């Protein structure tokens, strides 16, 4: 499976039916920061914190499919090198 990327977060946001502006407002980021993360501007993914990803997930998870939930969880665990217990 491909490495975690901004495209994964963008897909999650779109599946949740949110605009970049709506998501940014809900998680306390600027729309420009959401754009940078989704488009993987230099360093944006490398500097991504687990808190930002957690907030992104908390806003989007209610409306995405079970398949998306499982896939996203797996990607995040690998990206942050977290052991699933």
TrEMBL record:
Q: What PROSITE patterns does the entry give?
A: HTH_CROC1
Q: Could you read off the lineage of the organism from its UniProt record? A: Bacteria, Pseudomonadati, Pseudomonadota, Gammaproteobacteria, Alteromonadales
What organism is the protein native to?
Answer: Thalassomonas actiniarum
The Gene Ontology terms for molecular function here are: DNA binding
Q: What protein does this entry describe?
A: Helix-turn-helix domain-containing protein
Domain HTH cro/C1-type, by residue range, is 9-48
Record-linked InterPro entries? Cro/C1-type_HTH, Lambda_DNA-bd_dom_sf
């Amino acid at each position: 499976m491909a490495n975690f990327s901004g495209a994964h977060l963008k897909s999650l946001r779109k599946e949740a039916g949110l605009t970049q502006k709506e998501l940014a407002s809900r998680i306390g980021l600027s729309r420009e920061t959401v754009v940078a993360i989704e488009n993987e501007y230099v360093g944006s993914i490398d500097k991504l914190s687990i808190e930002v990803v957690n907030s992104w997930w908390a806003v989007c998870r209610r409306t995405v499919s079970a398949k998306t939930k499982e896939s996203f969880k797996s990607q995040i665990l690998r990206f942050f090198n977290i052991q699933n217990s």
